Amino acid sequence: MSQDNQQGPERRTVLAADRTIYAAERTYAAWMRTGLTALASGIGAKALLADVVPEILIVTTGTILVAFSAFCFIVAVIREFRPGPPPPEPDVKKIPSLLLLIVSGFLVIVSIATLFGVWFGRSGSPG
Question: Which residues span the membrane (predicted)?
């Protein structure tokens, strides 16, 4: 019996597995969105708070936001590779975990580079 012709509890189990895959992808996307927002906020703090608050506050705020972005990118991958008990075999194809690892790894590197920009880049207007 093909999966398309399944009825009853077996089909509901497969549909539940499909929903689990989609939920995991939404969770990954939420971690990535949060990380990108924190990264942009850290960069923005460096640029927008110049001449408004003391330099130490700018660097601290930027550091915390950028470090949080790296944390979000790392947690997104951890959640992808350690999702809990395996669901039944779904009908839908999962996004390749290696692709998610590469994207998250790249964004962690961007976060680290941004930290150096926050720490050593100039704040304020030139001159």
Answer: 56-78, 98-120
